[in-house]
Amino acid sequence: MAPLLPAKFPRSKFSVPQEVVPRRRWPLAGAALLAGMLLLALSGCGEVYYYWQAGLGQWDVISRRRPLEAVLADEGVAAETRRKLSLVVKAQTFAAGALGLPQSGHYRFYADLERPQVSWLVVATPEFSLEEQPFCYPIVGCLGYRGYFAREDADALAANLSDRGLDVLVRPVRAYSTLGWFDDPILNTMMAGAEVEVVGTVFHELAHRRYFLKGDTSFNESYATFVEEAGLARFLESGAAVDGQDAARALERWRSMQADEARFLALVETTRGRLTALYASARPEAEKRAEKAVLFERLRKDYQSVRGSFTIYNYDGWFAQPLNNANLAGQGQYSRHVRSFAALFAESGGQFEPFYQAVKALGALPPAEREAKLAQLEIQGAQLPPGNISQQP
Hints:
The protein has a three-stranded mixed beta sheet with strand order 2-3-9. A three-stranded antiparallel beta sheet has the order 7-4-8. Strands 1-10 form a two-stranded antiparallel ribbon. It has one domain (12-336). The protein contains 14 helices and ten strands. The chain is 54% helix and 10% strand. It has helices spanning 33-39, 45-63, 68-73, 79-98, 151-163, 195-210, 217-237, 247-280, 285-306, 316-320, 325-335, 338-347, 352-363, 367-382, and strands at residues 12-13, 65-67, 106-111, 119-125, 135-137, 141-143, 146-148, 167-173, 184-187, 313-314. Helix 8 runs antiparallel to helix 9 (285-306). By secondary structure, it is mostly helical. The model is unreliable at 1-45 (pLDDT under 50). The chain is globular.
């Protein structure tokens, strides 16, 4: 089984109870299933069980698939679900025509898993580092997370890692992609968010289908997040109506959502910087441990001081959970290089096809050279005006 990919940003609407519910995803949930079965005879007991539960979980998903056309025609399916599924069809058509994303072999089926999440994700970091514990898989390489279809399995791994002194995070996941290994269905777990989020999930997952770099979590997730955001902007600017609003109001609301997300990320990035400086210092471990707790409490207080500025979303659920390095690492996987890809998109003339070719070329660089180029692009990206990613050339 390939790793669970964390949902992008857990957040809560003002109008619903606050809870820790990540938005999505798990690219590669079953991508290594086939390869995993080949490794069973060579693996230790733990690895055998891991791939076994992955295979069973993936089979459960596949066995529940129904052709999308049949679901859309079934009046026994909730009207809201059918409406969102129709929007997914529209989003796929737009993605293929306007965003250069693949359409065949994806989202032709619907699967109701009869549960609110598809899987559970584990992220771990050392006590004094924001670098993720790597988990290695066939085909996709070593990535910064491991996922399970059952919560108890994720909790067991988390407990084991915690006993070894690591910071850990376990969180639910709503969607995943197998990168073309299987004909992935739309899941009921993807339908829980607002319509604009459903469309964003489609763009994000299809971006992974277009390009995936083996062994680099932050690169892959930042790239897909950028495509999601740029694609959503283009989709709404094309006149698409979502969430019961006309295109103009939907676009305005989405930009407010992006502003809320930016406020949250600014807080997280400030704390990441403070922690990075602390961990790099020569202070004794006991002092680092005490100051680490102070910095996480400061993050909570900083959030409360600006909470009133959030207009669509808040992050009360995220701040209600125990916070540690793994929480920040999980967020960083999705945001670390987004500005860099925005700059690369601008260099590509705001055109998706040249952008994908540039992403592929960037991914082909040796790791150190790739990181240096991303750092250079981030400086350029920070200078781009707000909303630049959606601008037509």
